Amino acid sequence: MCIYDRLHVLWFPSLYSGVGLALCERLLTEDSQLRLCLACRNMQRAQAARSALLTSHNNANIDLLHLDVGSVESVLAAAQEVKARYNRIDFLYLNAGIMPNPQIDFKAFFKGLFSKNVINMFATAEGLLSQQDRLNSDGLQEVFATNLFGHFLLIRELEPLLCGTGDTSRVVWSSSSNARRSAFNIDDMQHSSGTEPYSSSKYAVDLLSLALNRHKNNQGLFSSVICPGLVMTNLTYGILPSFFWTLIMPIMWLIRIFTNTFTLTPYNGAEAQHWLFLQKPESLDPRAKYHSLTSGLGKNYVESRQMDIDDEMSDVLYSNIIELEQEVRSKVSKANTAKYGNRER
User: Fold this and answer.
1) 204/186 Cα distance (integer angstroms)
2) What is the tens place of the pLDDT at every residue in 202-212?
3) What mean pLDDT is predicted for residues 258-283?
4) What span, in angstroms and rounded, lies between the C-alpha atoms of 329 and 323?
5) pLDDT band at 253 (very low <50, low <70, confident <90, very high)
6) Which residue ranges form the domains of the chain, and what is each CATH number?
7) Roughly how many angstroms between the first and final C-alpha of the chain, as a whole number?
8) 198: annotated active-site residue
C-alpha cells in the first residue's frame, strides 16, 4: 500500500451528484495538484463520481474509501484505512446526511405558499417537516448517528492526522437553515422522543463545531459550518412527490428573484465550501455559519451569519458526546473480545 505524505481533501458525500461532487469539481479547478479522497457508502456510485471528475481533470489524484458514517464499525475501519494511507489531512468536508421518511404538512404548505412567509417557509421548512427516525444496528438513533455522531467519531479517530504543531487542518460541516434551537433538547440529544430529528441533528452540528474550536484550535484543528441554501438534490426531491416539484418549480424560480437563499443548483450550493477552502482559518468566526447565496441575477457569494448558539449548551453537548463515544467504544471492545476470544478457545 502506498503511504502519501498528506491528503489535501477528504470528502464524505451523501449525494454522489450533488453539492459534494460540485465542490470537488470546483476544488480541482482551483488546484489540480490536490489529492482528494472520496469516502462513500456505495462504492459503485463513488467510482462513477471519480470517473466524472477524471473526465474534466485527467491527471487528478482521486482516491476512494468505503465508509458508512451511520455505522460505528464502518467508521472505525475507515479511520484505520486512512491512517494507513496518509500521514496528514488538510481538509475534511462532512457532507453526509439523511432525512428519513419526511412527512409534510400540506395544509401549512399551501397556506404558506401564498403568504408573505413563503420565502422563509422554503428556506427553513419551519412548521412543515417531520420525520420518522429509528434505531440503527448500534442502538443509536439513525439520523443522529449519520448526521453527527459518525462524523465526530471519525474526527476523534483521525486526530493524529488532523492535530499537530506547525500545521492547521480544517473540518467543514454541512449544516442547514433548518437547524433550529426549538427542535433540539440537550437532555435528548439523539432526539429519540421528537419528530424533527433532522433539524435537531443540524442544530447539534452548529453546537459541536463551536465546541471543537474551543477544544482543538490550540492543536491546529479548526471547525467551520456552512449552509448550502435551498439546493435541488435527491434529498430535496425526496420531500415531495416528483410531479409536485414540477408544478412548483416555476414559482421557486420566480421567488429566487426576491431572495438570495435559493441557490438551487449544486454548483451554487458549494459556494461557501469553496470559499472556506481559500480562507485562513484564524480569520474565521467560530460562531458564524457561512451561507452560500445566489442573487436574483445569478451571482454567487458567501455571507456569514451568527448562529443561535451559546457556550454552555455547546460544552454540555461536547461532554455528552464524549461520554457516548466512550460507551460505544466499550461496547465495541467487549464485542471484539467475545468474538475473537471465542475463536481462540
Assistant:
1) 9
2) 999 999 999 99
3) 90
4) 10
5) confident
6) 7-318 (3.40.50.720)
7) 33
8) yes
